[in-house]
From TrEMBL, chain A:
Protein's name according to its UniProt entry: ABC transporter ATP-binding protein
Protein family per UniProt: Belongs to the ABC transporter superfamily.
Coiled coil: none
Pfam families the record matches: ABC_tran
ATP-binding found in the keyword field: yes
UniProtKB/TrEMBL annotation, chain B:
Bilayer topology annotation: Multi-pass membrane protein
Keyword Ribosomal protein: no
Keywords, in A-Z order: Cell membrane, Membrane, Transmembrane, Transmembrane helix
Organism name: Alsobacter ponti
Protein name per UniProt: Branched-chain amino acid ABC transporter permease
TrEMBL record, chain C:
The protein's name in its UniProt record: Branched-chain amino acid ABC transporter permease
Major localization listed first in the record, in broad terms: membrane
Keyword Magnesium: no
Keywords, ordered alphabetically: Amino-acid transport, Cell membrane, Membrane, Transmembrane, Transmembrane helix, Transport
Membrane topology: Multi-pass membrane protein
Length: 241, 359, 338
């Protein structure tokens, strides 16, 4: 196992009166795809938002490449090399696909070789390049949101439930796209509910429940152990299969 | 007087007393001062200031129903104030002086105010606070333009001067002898009538905000979505609040017109009156109603007497032109504006909230 | 909107335009011609309406932009208009000779200096206003309305302290006085200047908003400021920058409006705010394009109605607002939000 690029140590997060995360700890090794699994409400989205500084940890530390980023403002966290694809996709619907991508490429003009690679992953983006993002379908918006995260090389990609609400064929495309992104050497932390899709992708896994990590280890071990799946994840994940 | 110890007084105040000894003393002083002004301070300026305080207590308290208890900013409040004034003025001017005409004017004005408040409320209270503020500003300014242009009805820019019912005229002398050294005339009677109406309106508004209805309003102000989720029809409640508020403002306008024997755009409709009311409610304390009493008293006294103080200070600072300029008597609004901004930041519950212990 | 990308397949439909809203003003102008009856009156009315509309646009554009990006409404915006107008006095005194000179270049130079000074003064004031008045009350609309009103009261009084309480008369530079006569129609010269400046500013703003990264960021920030931050941009700076730019635009509007009125009062900005609010409601809160169309619409209607049915003109603005909101409750160009 390689060095962790991201490490969470006992992170606690409160939103208003609610205590959502009760000490979350796990590692994301460089160059691998780490899955964050768990039921609805387990705290997965909150964990990603806390990493990005969109919600503030009240205790614990977030270390990125050994550096404490817990208290940094969100833009500085992004500039440290994290890209974030939120669950809501959050594409700028008033802007065109191209303009969304232009903003995602913070350091300058879009690299055309990289753009071709992205178009290879998500051909629809080439077709709708000059359309307003608001007119895209849900799956296309999701593609655009992920493409934005890939617009420039980043050191870690955080993706929140990319297959949520997608048709089965679209889910297969999405899984294939992630396989290629992974093959290109990107480090990814992926929140996923769809265990079937997840088990095909992950190198490592962290399972959350009630605001803490209840299991972490290689994906292969979890995929082979039906009893462990049952005890950790219950039936809620199986229904997606 | 402090706390709900039962009894007639507590019932009159709807069990919503001042809840602070200093505030209670201050309010008693204001009430006693208003009651005794004609006897204690002779001359036309003090009684005029006292009548103005009464009218603005009504106006500010009714505005507080919107701003403090419902959490919406309306700039159309002076429109209802003006409608009250014009109702009385037009009725008395056209139909001659008489109590029937006063009643007719007030009732007609109340009717118009209700309809307008209902319309504005239903159309625009479902939108966001900013939208509501802008739309009411536009409506109020259109009304001001209409009032100053439809001169056949409203007297235009000049307004309407009219005759009062005989009992309210200066020449009316109900008693042959002076009472406690004061020769009672129609002006004094008019003043006490206004004072009595003010007390009634204020106690009525106090009752409204302490009723179940008032509590729903406050729940909406605190959390609109939760109130909606609990099944309260937010728009209906807000509209009802703005109708009540509009009616009280209409009565205040009618009283001002009766006191001045005149109504015109400048006395009831102008934007600067709207600003004054905002200052009164915010400095006095939003959402307390008593704040309206304190704020109205403070502002009218400042308008009437602060200028004299500033004139002296300005003259004393004649050596330093800038200091003299900002102490110029016409710059009293500068200081109240600063006080207003500081109020919003540092004591959003105003003087009353401060006296009640910073809540 | 933009066509910079090289990889556009020809078969794709162009971005949809909202023709109904865009054609509103041209259709109105065309419809007014037969109603007005005489071509020369129509030219005069239309020119007056366009000039008025451009000035309203200058005064309103900053406010709508600030609202769109920051969800902050500045009810004290009017005082920036007044201060912009008064700031001209800093220039008009020393450069009185330029105003009286019968030389178009010198007159234009004077106008330019007035604009630069007014914009600098209001921009600086905007910086202070943002920090002192507005920053503590982000996210609370009620407090924003109250506190910016308070700031307006104080600033209006400050104008009285600095420049005196009585109205100040100013004179238009020589070349802008009088009218140009085309056939039977007379068009005041200053109105041509106002239209030109309004068009330049609108074109500039459109260019910035649609063709630059800064503009994309502003438009993206209007929709989802959190995501803009997550992409690594410091939106706080963008906020301040837009507020300062909005204040400077109010100052520019103040110069144009001041020359138009030729009388300066501390309340002149607040007086025009009612129109400004109507315009940004009509346009769709936060939309610069909507603000432009709304300004022209309101001003043209006011001029035509004033000619055709003077009594109705008093409430024509409110009527236009009511009609537009009945048609599109969110305004002509609703801005997508979160």
């Amino acid at each position: 196992m390689s060095e962790p690029i991201l490490r969470l140590e006992g992170v606690e997060t409160r939103i208003g009166p609610y205590h959502i995360l009760h000490g979350v700890s796990f590692d994301v090794p460089a160059g691998e795809l780490t899955l964050l699994l768990g039921r609805n409400g387990a705290g997965k989205t909150t964990t990603l938002r806390t990493i990005m500084g969109l919600w503030r940890a009240s205790a614990g530390r977030v270390l990125f490449d050994g550096r404490d980023i817990t208290a940094l403002p969100t833009p500085d966290i992004a500039r440290a090399g994290l890209a974030y694809v939120p669950e809501s996709m959050a594409v700028f619907s008033d802007l065109t696909v191209r303009e969304n991508m232009v903003l995602a490429a913070r350091s300058g003009p879009l690299d055309s070789a990289r753009l071709d690679w992205i178009f290879g992953l998500f051909p629809a983006l080439r077709r709708f390049w000059q359309s307003r993002a608001g007119v895209l379908s849900g799956g296309q918006k999701q593609m655009l949101a992920i493409a934005r995260g890939l617009a420039e090389p980043r050191r870690l990609l955080l993706v929140d439930e990319p297959t949520k609400g997608l048709a089965p064929a679209m889910v297969r495309n999405m899984v294939e796209a992630f396989r290629q992104v992974k093959a290109a050497g990107e480090t990814i932390l992926l929140v996923e509910q769809n265990f079937h899709a997840a088990s095909a992708l992950g190198d490592d896994v962290a399972v959350m429940d009630n605001g803490t990590v209840v299991h972490s280890g290689p994906m292969r071990a979890l995929a082979a152990d039906a009893a462990l799946q049952q005890s950790l994840l219950g039936l809620s994940l199986d229904q997606h299969q | 007087m402090s706390g709900g110890r039962g009894g007639v007084l507590a019932a009159l105040l709807s069990d919503d007393g001042p809840r602070s000894r200093v505030l209670a003393v201050l309010l008693l002083a204001i009430a006693a001062g208003l009651a005794a002004t004609p006897f204690v301070f002779p001359g036309s300026q003090p009684i005029g200031a006292a009548a103005k305080i009464c009218v603005f207590i009504m106006l500010a308290a009714s505005y507080d129903i919107l701003l403090g208890y419902t959490g919406v900013v309306s700039f159309a409040h002076t429109m209802f104030f003006g409608i009250g004034g014009y109702g009385v003025a037009i009725a008395l001017d056209r139909l001659g002086p008489g109590w029937g005409q006063v009643a007719l004017g007030v009732v007609a004005a109340l009717g118009l105010s209700c309809v307008l408040a209902l319309a504005i409320g239903l159309i625009s209270l479902r939108v966001r606070a900013i939208f509501f503020a802008m739309i009411t500003l536009a409506v109020a300014s259109a009304f001001l333009v209409l009032a100053s242009q439809l001169s056949t009805l409203t007297g235009g820019e000049d307004g309407i001067s009219f005759q009062l019912p005989g009992e309210l005229r200066p020449a009316f002398r109900p008693f042959a002898e002076p009472v406690l050294g004061l020769a009672i005339n129609g002006r004094v009677l008019a003043y006490y009538m206004i004072l009595a109406v003010t007390v009634l309106v204020f106690l009525g508004l106090l009752r409204v905000v302490n009723s179940p209805f008032g509590r729903v309003l406050q729940a909406i102000r605190e959390n609109e979505f939760r109130a909606e989720a609990l099944g309260y029809r937010v728009v209906a409640y807000r509209t009802a609040a703005s109708v009540i508020s509009a009616c009280a403002a209409t009565v205040a306008g009618a009283m001002l017109a009766l006191w001045l024997r005149y109504n015109g755009p400048d006395t009831t409709l102008s934007f600067s009156i709207m600003i004054d009311v905002l200052l009164m409610v915010v400095i006095g304390g939003m959402g307390t109603l008593y704040g309206a009493v304190v704020g109205a008293t403070l502002l009218v006294l400042a308008q009437t007497y602060l200028q004299a103080v500033m004139a002296k200070a300005s003259a004393a600072a004649a050596g330093a032109p800038i200091v003299a300029a900002i102490l110029h008597p016409d710059r009293w609004l500068l200081w109240l504006g600063v006080l207003f901004v500081l109020s919003v930041y540092f004591f959003p519950t105003g003087v009353v909230g401060r006296l009640r212990g910073g809540r | 909107m933009t066509d910079l990308g090289a990889t556009t397949p020809a078969s794709l439909p162009a971005p949809r335009r909202d023709w109904a809203a865009l054609l509103l003003c041209p259709v109105l102008m065309a419809a007014a011609l037969p109603l007005v009856g005489s071509a020369s009156s129509w030219v005069t009315l239309t020119a007056a309406g366009l000039a008025m509309g451009m000035m309203i646009f200058l005064m309103a554009s900053g406010l709508t932009l600030v609202f769109g990006l920051m969800d902050v409404i500045n009810f004290g915006h009017g005082v920036f208009i007044s201060i912009g107008a008064y700031a001209m006095l800093l220039v008009l005194g020393p450069l009185a000779g330029w105003a009286e000179a019968d030389s178009l270049p010198l007159n234009l130079a004077l106008l330019a200096v007035c604009i630069v000074v007014a914009m600098a003064v209001t921009a600086a004031l905007g910086l202070v206003f943002e920090r002192v008045i507005i920053r503590p009350v982000y996210r609370s609309h009620l407090k924003q309305i109250l506190v910016t009103m308070g700031g307006m009261i104080v600033a209006e009084q400050a104008i009285h302290v600095v420049w005196g309480a009585s109205p100040v008369a100013i004179r238009l530079p020589e070349a802008f006085r009088g009218a140009i006569v085309i056939g039977d129609a007379a068009v005041e010269r200053y109105r041509v200047v106002a239209v030109a400046i309004g068009l330049v500013v609108f074109a500039g703003m459109s260019l910035v908003l649609n063709r630059t990264r800064l503009g994309l960021l502003i438009r993206a920030g209007v929709e989802n400021p959190e995501m803009v931050e997550a992409l690594g941009y410091r939106i706080r700076r963008l906020f301040v920058g837009v507020f300062v730019a909005g204040s400077a635009l109010a100052g520019l509007g103040g110069v144009m409006w001041g020359f138009y009125r030729q009388t300066l009062t501390a309340g002149m900005g607040m007086e025009v705010m009612v129109l400004v609010f109507i315009v940004i409601i009509i346009g769709g809160l936060g939309s610069v394009g909507g603000c432009f169309v709304g300004s022209l619409l309101v001003a043209l209607v006011a001029n035509y109605v004033g000619f055709l049915a003077p009594k109705l003109a008093l409430v024509s603005n409110i009527l236009v607002m009511a009609l537009v909101l009945a048609w599109r409750p969110q305004g002509l160009f609703p801005v997508a939000r979160r």
